[in-house]
Specification:
Blueprint: H1 6-10, H2 15-27, E1 34-35, H3 47-57, H4 72-86, E2 96-99, H5 103-113, E3 119-124, H6 132-137, E4 140-147, E5 153-154, E6 164-170, H7 184-195, E7 198-202, H8 224-227, E8 228-233, H9 234-238, E9 246-250, H10 252-265, H11 271-282, H12 286-306, E10 316-320, H13 327-332, E11 336-337, E12 339-340, E13 351-355, H14 360-374
Parallel strand pairs: 1-11, 3-4, 3-6, 6-7, 7-8
Antiparallel strand pairs: 2-9, 4-5, 8-9, 10-13, 12-13
Helix pairs in contact: 3-11, 4-11, 5-10, 12-14
Bound molecules: pyridoxal-5'-phosphate.
Length: 375
């Protein structure tokens, strides 16, 4: 076989794959590990969602190819959610694309927006899957630093200005656990006008904001739809990570590019899964609030044990390690797995990300060990 094409060679190490392998390797030896490294919701969707899947799977019509661009009623259900919960009007036909989880469009949006040699700007710190898209697209990556002294606000004055094809943002932020700071989305729209960049907003944790905050969609910002799109995921709001359904919504031209890519690469999503997503989006929403309250309660418990931490949403704690301690020490000596900060961008060195998406018992045990490690 010929050598690997350059675009495959350019792919960075898959951070979460590497993390899993590292933790698994160390799990085999010594005292049982407590794993606070992974962001995998620990409880699934409510029963009515699973029932909807069951029922739809029993129909003779369930098993053929689903429509390329999904069931219109699923796009309508998502548009209705945006209207009623986030105050955003969407045209379900032109402004909503259904995708197999948002991890996919994280990469595809880079392919849809950048030519080779152009720049894609990522927040620093970033979600570790973001550099993969620019790598496949042959684009450069630039950074917009997030300022920890300003609620992890993007400092656009320090961002690149030339040949910027897109800027990615993510609030509530993984890993920083910050809700969107005042003015951040407005600044992104301004940056887009100034540079011609498109804005890609990752809203995967949109519903998981604490202390009475309201979810804030990027698309509710004046001018946002003209310059960008938002990704909404079923994974974190409903505990449906394994179901692989998400959405790209907003700017119709960008939505069309994602649909075009998917027309070539996929054929819809299994119809019963779409029916179950409709049940999740349109049925009772108390499970979303319960999930949010559970993570807020665990956040409070972390603060009780480890001291003050900024955590306004998501199910993570992003914290600086005490001098001289590494994530490797925590794993091998203290038997707690955490996500090492290095994978979250240049500013992540010396930081770790803890996950609250574990049982209360696991969290307690992990906190006990961390408190001992930090003492
Ligand atoms: C910030 C962020 N975006 C996107 C995703 C991907 O979510 P999914 O592909 O399940 O929709 C995750 C998953 O952990 C995430 O943390």
């Amino acid at each position: 076989m010929r050598r690997r094409p350059a675009r495959i060679e350019r792919l960075p190490q898959q951070y979460f794959g590497g993390l899993l392998a590292w933790v698994t390797e160390h799990a085999l030896e010594g005292e049982p590990l407590v794993d606070l490294g992974r962001g995998n919701p620990e409880t699934g969707p409510p029963a009515h969602v699973v029932d909807a899947l069951d029922e739809a799977a029993g129909l003779e019509t369930a098993h053929g190819y689903a429509p390329f661009r999904s069931l219109p009623k699923l796009r309508a259900a998502l548009a209705e959610r945006y209207r009623s919960r986030y105050g955003v009007q969407l045209d379900p036909d032109a402004e909503v694309a259904v995708v197999p989880g948002t991890k996919t469009p994280i990469v595809e949006l880079s392919l849809a927006l950048a030519d080779e040699g152009e720049t894609i700007v990522l927040p620093d710190p970033y979600y570790p899957d973001y550099p993969s898209g620019p790598a496949l697209a042959g684009a450069r990556t630039g950074m917009v630093p997030l300022d920890p002294t300003a609620g992890w606000s993007p400092d656009f004055a320090a961002a690149p200005r030339d040949d910027v094809a897109a800027v990615y943002l993510n609030y509530p932020s993984n890993p920083c656990a910050a809700a969107v700071p005042d003015g951040a989305f407005e600044a992104a729209v301004e940056y887009a006008h100034e540079t011609g960049a498109a804005v890609v907003h990752d809203f995967a944790y949109g519903d998981l904001v604490f202390d009475g905050r309201k979810p804030t969609s990027f698309l509710a910002t004046p001018g946002a739809r003209e310059v960008g799109v938002e990704m909404f995921s079923m994974s974190k709001s409903y505990g449906m990570a394994g179901w692989r359904v998400g959405f790209v919504v907003g700017n119709a031209e960008i939505v069309e590019r994602i649909n075009l890519l998917n027309d070539h690469c996929r054929v819809g999503i299994f119809r019963p899964i779409q029916e179950a997503c409709i049940a999740a989006l349109t049925g009772p929403q108390n499970s979303v609030a319960e999930r949010r309250d559970t993570y807020q309660r665990r956040r409070d418990r972390v603060i009780e044990v480890l001291g003050p931490q900024t955590c306004e949403g998501t199910f993570y704690i992003w914290m600086k390690l005490p001098e001289g301690l590494t994530a490797g020490d925590l794993l091998t000596e203290h038997r707690v797995a955490v996500a090492p900060g290095e994978g979250f961008g240049p500013s992540g060195k010396g930081w770790i990300r803890l996950s609250l998406a574990v049982s209360d018992e696991t969290l307690e045990l992990g906190l006990e060990r961390l408190a001992r490690a930090f003492s």
